[in-house]
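To: structure subgroup
Subject: Chain for Friday's discussion

All,

I'm putting the inputs and outputs inline so they're searchable in the archive.
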Amino acid sequence: MLAGAASNAGMNRMILSKESDQERLEVMSSINALTRRLVTATVSYVGKANYKEAERYIRDFRAWTSSASNGLLVEVSAVSGRFTLDFIQHFSNPIVVDAFLKELEDNGIVYDLQDVQALDLPNIKLPWTER
C-alpha cells in the first residue's frame, strides 16, 4: 500500500508541475490511455462503517463512483453486520455479475440482490473523458 500511495503522490506532483490546464489534461489523457490498457477490474474495500446504534436501521450502504478504467469496479463495504458489493461497469452485459452470483450459489453463500440500475451520469463531457 505504501508503494501505491507513493506512486500516486508522485503522479500528482508531476501533474501539478505542469504550467497549464492543457498540459495537465494531456498528461491525464496519457495516464488514462495506459490505465485502460492495463486495468481490467478494480476492487475497492471501503471498510467497516461504525455508525453505532444507527447501524440496525441501515439496510444497505452504497459507495458509487467511477472506475479507474473502462472496465469494472467492485465497491465493498461492511455495515450493520452485512457486506454490500456494488458492481459498477461501463457495459450493460451482466456476465460478470452473473458469474459472481453463480460462484456464491455454488459455494452455498446466501445473498440478497438488492437491485440492478443503469448508471445515470450527468449530461456533461469532461475534458479527459473519452466515450
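Points worth raising on Friday:
Residues 21-38 form the longest helix (18 residues).
DSSP finds three helices and three strands in the chain.

D.
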